[in-house]
Amino acid sequence: MSVILVTGGTGLVGKAIEYVIETEPEGSRFGKRAGEKWVFIGSSEADLRNQEQSKKLFEKYKPTHVIHLAALVGGLFINMKKKLDFLRDNILINDNVLHNAHELGCTKVISCLSTCVYPDKVDYPLDETKIHLGLPHHSNFGYAHAKRLVDVQNHAYKDQYGDNFTSAIPTNVFGPHDNFDLESAHVLPALMHKCYLAKKNGTPFVVWGSGKPLRQFIYSRDLAKLFIWMLREYDDVEPLILSVGEDEEVSIGQAARAVVGAMGFAGEFRFDTAQADGQFRKPASNKKLLSLIGDFEFTPFEKALEETVAWFQQNYENARTGKP
Predict the structure, then answer these.
(1) Model's pTM, two decimal places?
(2) Do β-strands 205-208 and 269-272 pair in parallel, antiparallel, or remain unpaired?
């Protein structure tokens, strides 16, 4: 029996993995397989910053495999405001998960990193060899350094103990069950929530920044399939970028217009150029992924966006919107 523990299992990517495991045909490439037990846990079950609670969680479920998604995460503005929190909380979470997985003799751990681990000054496109070539962007250096340390720890566990610990580097993830709280959301869910409120209240839809920065967006349910594939077929300690191709970059302005269309918003729509833009672009190469996985079809951006907007509108009362 394989017991697959998914930390952060109630969040954006965890919910997407649960959706894929439950909806793909059993025994298929991305579906649940015989002898597998999947356990999705959220912060209500254990505070992974706490050593004792983390240990008890691992002793309770005795996982053979871990997909480690739990993290303190947020968009540009909350990262700029709380750099120490993002550094310290994530270091504690990651260390507790990896240490307990090692102590328990887990067969495999895949941790989730982010493209913000990359240096601010770097040659594009990003690839798996460039993580440690310079300092990350100042806007999120707390979170970025904590996530970089996971790669360092994975190599150390492998070198000293032979543990099969690795990591995935997704680009900008979005989808159902995202964090739509305007204080801490990433760009797409923040745009959706802002547009929803503008439509509801008859106010202008104001997008912070110029709208010019470019991003690669990956649908959470596509990413979920890639995590499941990695769990079963990828056994290298080196991180792997999980992303759509570089040729599928979308500007924040394009994304905002797509949200306007999907929401059916007909009011005033403008950009507030007095607000910060963050990094202009950080294209990542998915060549290594495609060379290993073979045939994989990503959901077109517009279709994924429409599905996410529809989910958000239908589930607004229960979505993570920051309301009390």
Answers:
(1) 0.94
(2) parallel
Q: What is the DSSP string of 96-110?
A: HHHHHHHHHT-SEEE
Active site residues: 143
Q: 160: exposed, middle or buried (C-beta count within 10 Å: 0-12, 13-18, 19+)?
A: exposed
* Amino acid identity for residue 246 in this structure: E
Which residues, 6+ apart, have CB-to-CB distance to 124 below 8 Å? Answer: 281, 282, 283
For residue range 52-84, what is the model confidence (pLDDT) as tens digits?
Answer: 999 999 999 999 999 999 998 777 777 778 889
CA distance 157 to 206: 47
Query: Cβ(222)–Cβ(175) under 8 Å?
Result: no
- Look up residue 173 and give its DSSP letter: E
The pLDDT tens digits for 145-166 are 999 999 999 999 999 999 999 9
